[in-house]
Amino acid sequence: MELLVVDDEETLRSVVSQVLSADGFEVAEAASGEEALAVFREKSHPLVITDIRMGGMSGIELLEEIKRHNPDTQVVIMTSHASLDTALSAMRNGAYDYLVKPFESLDLISAVAGRAAEKARLVAQNRELLNQLQRANSELQEVNSVLKEMAVRDGLTALYNHRHFQEALALEIARTNRSGRPCSIAFMDVDNFKAYNDTHGHPDGDKLLRRLSELLVSHLRSSDLAARYGGEEFVLLLPDTPKQAAVRIAEALRVKVEQERFPGRERQPLGRVTISVGVASYPGDGPDAKAILACADQRLYQAKHGGRNRVVAE
């Protein structure tokens, strides 16, 4: 372990350094508190043994600076009998132990330094364990966040799934009841999607659904929510949106999809890929989430059987 010995008496400093070097410590020396602080700031030693009385910065002041820089460093104070009260005060302020000069035995230096070194090792180990726990906890939170996100997302399109949409709609209706501002939903279905799958195969059909999802997301506001309801059916939740505004959003999406150059669109029955949309608003079209969904679904049915590629809101 690296150790810093600080004393303005060269002879005493040399004796302490030799004893600790013989014990296996890697010893650095400093002849003043100021020099020790400069050395410590450059390389934070886990153990410091310092005299309490020195010209310039005292051992107490050095202790305070060291603890401010690295609270884990263990500091042993060397003092005379005359300064024992000051040494005890230093321990109350964070010093690990003290040595009284003149030393009764050089073995005492080794014993105190050994205990302090063991304390420094334990503190370092505890710090590393704490860091490992914090890293593991952070990683666990990230994994939980990913798993939570996966649980509410559709695996193919990355839009929200049916279950999350139902929960979001219930929350939005509750919020609407408090605020008095209407919300709307737009239920949509890809026209003749079975024909596209039969002609191009399911992998290309999946690509179409993913691209359609991208178009939906790019067109919506940050407060809106897009979900894959099932198969080729999609639904939009539009907070704070009356029916007329929802119809404009749905119509713009319909046109956007109609104009998109999907691969093989010319072989579709309408000569292009299109969507049909049913729009319903709360509270005007029903008293609860179930009624609003049923209303939008019925209007989607009307759009499909009225020629497709259209928005129905009444």
Give structural notes.
The protein is an alpha/beta fold and 314 residues long. The protein has two domains: 2-128, Rossmann fold (3-Layer(aba) Sandwich), CATH 3.40.50.2300; 162-312, Alpha-Beta Plaits. 53% of the residues lie in helices and 18% in strands. The chain has helices spanning 10-22, 33-42, 59-69, 84-92, 106-151, 162-179, 193-200, 202-219, 243-259, 289-305, and strands at 2-6, 26-30, 47-51, 74-80, 97-101, 183-190, 225-230, 233-238, 275-282, 311-312. The strands form two sheets. It has a five-stranded parallel sheet with strand order 2-1-3-4-5, sandwiched between helices. Strands 7-8-6-9-10 form a five-stranded mixed sheet, with helices on both faces.
Look at the helices and sheets and give the structural class: alpha/beta
> In DSSP terms, counting alpha (H) and pi (I) runs of 4 or more, how many helices?
10
Q: What is the rounded distance between the termini?
A: 82 Å
Fourth-tier CATH superfamily name of the largest domain? Reverse transcriptase/Diguanylate cyclase domain
Second-tier CATH architecture of the largest domain: 2-Layer Sandwich
The number of distinct β-strands equals 10
Mean pLDDT: 92
Compute the number of structural domains: 2
Biggest sheet overview: 5 strands, parallel
Strand order, biggest sheet? 2-1-3-4-5
- What radius of gyration results from the CA coordinates? 37 Å
Protein name: diguanylate cyclase
Catalytic activity: 2 GTP = 3',3'-c-di-GMP + 2 diphosphate
Enzyme class: transferase
Domain Response regulatory: 2-116
